[in-house]
From TrEMBL:
PROSITE patterns: OMPR_PHOB, RESPONSE_REGULATORY. Keywords: DNA-binding, Phosphoprotein, Transcription, Transcription regulation. Residues 124-220 bind DNA. Residues 124-220 form the OmpR/PhoB-type domain. The modification 4-aspartylphosphate is found at D51. The keyword Transcription applies. This is Response regulator. The keyword Endoplasmic reticulum does not apply. SUPFAM superfamilies: C-terminal effector domain of the bipartite response regulators, CheY-like. Residues 2-116 form the Response regulatory domain.
């Protein structure tokens, strides 16, 4: 999952980015509204964490511009402006949730997980594909009740696939879910992750199918 963190406090941004990385998110940082706007022109994100009191272009303007362009990316406001009027105003502008500073990182992650579930049309934290299941709260994959031992990048690939279960996920989307602009994933590396995942889920009735020229699909294959 790829996040855009828009926060002008570099110390706070670095701390949040580090903790979210440890939880398996790929995080890109923007310290001004202008930097965020440039990133949004060329990059796509699963969610945005947005401060309001930014230098230059304010967070409120970024939110307005997103919704005016019919960009429905989930937005979680993180702000020291914690009056009821501020919260209601920004929810009405199109924010998906609002978290007042200072906050606990566990609450931030819980709200982020809930926001991502809602954006994908799911309310249950458990997603299953046959005997393969994923708990978005614990971020654990299991096959027939046994937890899978996945590397961070294997986990990110399988999470992207199970969130779009039964649908084609392009190689570019998978690569984007693994890295930021300061990182990269080669097509060969992605193929290796897919091969490893196929081995690790082979005792389940879930399969990763290659659709040549299109990408990959996680699907349930019934056994007779």
């Amino acid at each position: 999952m790829k996040l855009l963190l828009v926060e002008d406090n570099r110390e706070l941004s670095s701390w949040l980015s580090r903790l979210l990385n440890l939880s398996g998110y790929a995080v890109e940082q923007a310290f001004t509204g202008e930097e965020a706007t440039l990133l949004l022109l060329t990059q796509s994100y699963d969610a945005i964490l947005l401060d309001l009191t930014l230098p230059g272009l304010k967070g409120q303007t970024i939110l307005k511009n997103l919704r005016n362009k019919n960009n429905e990316v989930p937005v979680l406001i993180i702000s020291a402006q914690d009056s009821l009027q501020d919260i209601v105003e920004h929810l009405n502008l199109g924010a998906d949730d609002y978290l007042a500073k200072p906050f606990d990182i566990h609450e931030l992650e819980a709200r982020l997980r809930s926001l991502l579930r809602r954006s994908s049309g799911k309310t249950n934290p458990i997603t299953s594909c046959g005997a393969l299941s994923y708990n978005s709260n614990s971020k654990i994959f299991s096959s027939r009740g046994v937890d899978l031992n996945l590397t961070p990048r294997e986990h990110a690939v399988l999470e992207a696939l199970i969130r779009q279960m039964g649908k084609t996920v392009s190689k570019r989307h998978l690569a984007d879910s693994l890295c930021t602009l300061n990182d990269s994933v080669s097509p060969k590396a992605l193929e290796i992750y897919i091969l490893r995942l196929r081995k690790k889920i082979e005792n389940s009735d879930a399969q990763i199918i290659t659709l040549r020229g299109l990408g990959y699909m996680l699907t349930y294959v019934a056994t007779s």
